[in-house]
Amino acid sequence: MRELVDTVSDLSKFSKEKMEDQNAQVKILELNNLVKSLQENLALIEAENQVLRKHISASSLKQNSDGNSTSQLSAQDHKEGIEALIDCVVHRVGIVAGKSVVALTIYKCLLNWKCFEAEKTCVFDRLLQMFDSASKGFGASTTNGVMAHRVEAKYPALLFKLQLTTLVETMYTVTRENLKKDLTPLLSLAIQAPRAAKASLVRGQSFKTSDSPRKSFSDARFANSIPESPRKSFSDARTISFKNSMQESHWKSITDNLSDSYVILQENGIPAVLIERMMCQIFSFINIQLFNSILLRRECCTFSNGEYLKYGLSELQAWCEKLEEQHIGSAWDKLEHINQATAFLVTLQKFKISYEDLTQNICSALNVQQLYRICTQYWDDKYNSQTVSPNVLNNMRTLMTDETSDVDSSDFLLDDDTSIPFTLFEIYNAVEDKEFSQFTIPKEILDISALKLSQP
C-alpha cells in the first residue's frame, strides 16, 4: 500500500512538471485526490493493525493459560454458534423499526465470541459467502471484488472490514444503476412537449394555470412518512398545468418512481447518508439526461418545450421539498444545468439579453460551448421570436479558443458520475451509537442458546 501511494504521488509530481494543458490539470487533481484517499486509508489500516496486535497478544496469553479441554470445548461451542447464526440470519431476522436486526445480531455475536481479536477464524468467511450468495440474487456478484483483498490483509478482522467495504460499495453501485435504468425510459418520454400541446401553442393558446393545490404523492406510505414543506415552488403563478395530457403522466411517473425508490431504501434500513448520496447522484443523472438532450436535439430546444420542462422541474422541486433537505440533502441543486437552460428557453425577447446578463445571471453554470450550442439551436415555435443578438454570439465565438470552437464536438456534453460518493468515515460519523444502544433484539433471537446473546 505504501509503495502504491508513493508511486501515484511521484506520477502526480511528474505530471505537474511536464503538462500544462487543461486536461492534464484535471488528471493531476484526480491523482492528488487519489493520493489523499490512499494516505487516509493507509493511516487507518496502520492504526487498526496496532490495536489488533494488542488484542491478539492479550488473547494469546489468555489461551496459553487455559487447558486443552477448555479450548476444545470453546471450539465446539464456536462452531455451533456459527451454524446457529447463519441459520438465524437466513431465516429469522430482517428489519425492525427501521434498524437491521441482521447487522446488530451479527455484530453482537462477533463481539461475544471475540472474533475481532482472533488470529484465525472461519466465521468471517462463512458470513462473506452468505452475503455473496444473497447479492447474486439481487443481480450482482461480489466475490471477485471482495476476495481481491486477501493478499493485502494480515489479520482476519481487518480483512473482514475490507471485504465488507467492497460489498457495500458494490451493492450501492448496483442499486444506483438499477434506479437509473428505471428512470431512463421515463426521462426520454418527458424531455419533449407533446405535439398536440405544441400545436395549440402555435395557434396562440396558452396552457392553463392550475388553481388547485398540488396533490400529494399517490403512495400513502410515502406521503405519511415525510413532512410537508412551507417553501415556495419553483414555478410562479404562471406555472403550466398540462392537465389531462399524456406528458403530465410521464413526469408523474418520474416522481412516483423516486417515491417508490425512497420508500424501499428506508424500509430496508439503508443509512440516511447513503440514501442522501444516492438521491443526489440520481438527480445529477436526471440533470445530465435532460440537459444533454437539449444540446443534441434541436426539436427539444424550443420555447414551448422550455415551458414544458419548467412544469416538469417544478414537479421535481415539489418532490424535493416534500422530503426536505435532511432527507435528500442537496439533490435539487444537482439540476442546476437544466434549470438554467430552461430559464433561457422561456425568457422573452432574447435578442435584448446582454452577454453579461446571460452568463452571470441566467446561465452562470453553463460554459461558453454549451451556451453557444443552445443559443444557435434555439427556435421559437410559439411567438416566432429570435434568439440572442449577433453581438452576443460574436462574444462567444471570440472567447472560444481554436481547440474548443468546434460546436459539433461532444466536449459540451455533461458526463455521468459513477463514483462512490461516500467514505467509511462518513458512515461511521452518520450512525450514532444511541440509534442502537436502546434497540431491543427480538426475544426469539435471544432464546437461541448457541448465540450466547443477552440484552444489555
How would you portray this structure in words?
64% of the residues lie in helices and 1% in strands. With 456 residues, it is mainly α. Among the domains are: 1-65; 175-399, no CATH class. A two-stranded antiparallel sheet has the order 1-2. The model is unreliable at 66-73, 142-151 and 196-244 (pLDDT under 50).
The count of DSSP E runs of length 2 or more, i.e. the number of strands, is: 2
* Number of alpha- plus pi-helical segments: 20
- Return the average pLDDT rounded to an integer: 75
Largest sheet: 2 strands, antiparallel
Low-confidence stretches: 66-73, 142-151, 196-244
> Percent range for helical residues?
55-70%
Q: What is the H/E string?
A: HHHEEHHHHHHHHHHHHHHHHH
Rg from alpha-carbon coordinates:
28 Å
Shape: elongated
Spatially, the strands of the biggest sheet line up as 1-2
Provide the structure class. mainly alpha
C-alpha end-to-end distance: 40 Å
Strand content: under 5%
Coiled coil: 21-55
InterPro entries: Dilute_dom, Vascular_dev_regulator
Pfam families: DIL
Keywords: Coiled coil
Give the helices and strands, then pairings.
Elements: H1 2-18, H2 22-65, H3 68-91, E1 95-96, E2 99-100, H4 101-112, H5 123-138, H6 143-147, H7 156-190, H8 195-202, H9 220-225, H10 246-267, H11 272-296, H12 303-323, H13 325-328, H14 336-345, H15 355-362, H16 368-377, H17 390-399, H18 424-430, H19 434-437, H20 443-446
Antiparallel strand pairs: 1-2
Domain Dilute: 144-402
Coiled coil: 21-55
Protein name: Myosin-6-like protein
